[in-house]
Amino acid sequence: MTTLAEMAVEVLTTADGRAKCAVSKRHAEAWFAARAAGTPLAVGTAAPPLHPARPARPELLHPRDVPRRRPGSPQGRIALLHAVAHIELNAVDLHWDIIARFGHVPMPLGFYDDWVKAAAEESNHFTLISDCLEAMGSHYGALPAHAGMWRAAEDTVDDLFGRLAVVPMVLEARGLDVTPGMIDLFRKANEAQALAALEVIYAEEVGHVAYGSKWFNWLCGRDGLDPKEVFHDLVRRYFHGALKPPFNEEKRAEAGLPPDFYWPLADGDTGD
Ligand SMILES: [Fe+2]
Ligand SMILES: [Fe+2]
């Protein structure tokens, strides 16, 4: 019988973006169908690759070498959506990786429900943005993309606390800060399809940050640790650089991230 960890590895070892997302959605449906029937699939353990399979294109470049384009032009908006598609595909792999990578850590079933749901949503995000790119005469893979996206996963490969601190609670929380500006940009450009896709992403990403915060707090509670202190230590250890204000305080609060978690790690903060 297939375990959830084996299903995760199948997603991680599928290279093509749309194919990866199709496998991801199919496995999420199987997981939730079994949960609804009261016969949950075994979580199991598996050996996820250190780097997930990805398509031959886009070409991956150091962030410094990725050309910047002005968002005021159609080409600039395509470049922006291309960068979002790259983030979403990476997120599909990140959410399955946390399932496969830490299968040896006993967690309540709700932990898996949350990350399987998040992975299915990321798969939908990638598909929505790929559809936008194709409607605009481009496609995922047409432009170069950042090479460093998987770094957070590699750095926290043996630390579940660190993975939760850096991936959902720092990187995905950053998404909450920057997405409203993108939504504005596409609204002003009358790009209805991209606007609708970004609004779905913005709404669902709050949930992913909340899952991170929930399970990070749960683990700290299990071990009798102060979550804020542990968060600060882990972000300083694994995240390269300071957090960048302005922060979306409202959405971060909705996702269970209080200001005293992130402000002491911010650019220019002298406290703590
Ligand atoms: Fe997403
Ligand atoms: Fe996400």
From TrEMBL:
Give the Basic and acidic residues compositional bias ranges.
56-68
Q: Which SUPFAM superfamilies match?
A: Ferritin-like
Renumbered to this chain, region (Disordered) spans 46-73
Pfam families (UniProt xref): DUF455
User: Which InterPro entries does the entry mention?
Assistant: DUF455, Ferritin-like_SF, UCP012318
Q: Which domain of life is it from?
A: Bacteria
The record's listing under CDD domains reads: Ferritin_like
Name of the protein described by the UniProt record: Rhamnosyltransferase
Q: Specify the species.
A: Gemmobacter lanyuensis
